[in-house]
Amino acid sequence: MNEAIQSKEVRLVSESGQQVLPTVQALNMASELGLDLIQISASDPPVCKILDSGKYKFELQKKEKQSKQNQQTIETKEIRMSITIGENDFQTKVKSAISFLTKGYHVKVSVRFRGREITHIEIGEELLANFCQQVNHLVNSKTNASLQGRILSILLKP
Question: pTM of the prediction?
């Protein structure tokens, strides 16, 4: 902005069109109008406009805020189990997963191994397979079960 522009020439964009001017002349034009010379693009020569700097900054903030509003964030809910889970507890976990999936959340189902349980990974895989079978009607895609340390997990997407 203004004197911070280092280039000898600038491409000035105005209502009348584009023109290449020396930076000093463009700065003089901006000061005559009581506005600022703002660098829009860093090309060769840099593209500049004569604008009110406060208004320009406000417009940039407004565009940034609007782009943040348009972004979608997908939340992931996690359901944790152990291989010694009882049948009623398992059904409760399935019901909560169904409610999360119907609300549009991704669900990460984890089976945690404690102590020597890690030697029986196949039991955890069976548990996850049974879980996936219970919620299969609500799931569009799912990842393969992965073992990370002592946790076997799978991600379910509605």
Answer: 0.55
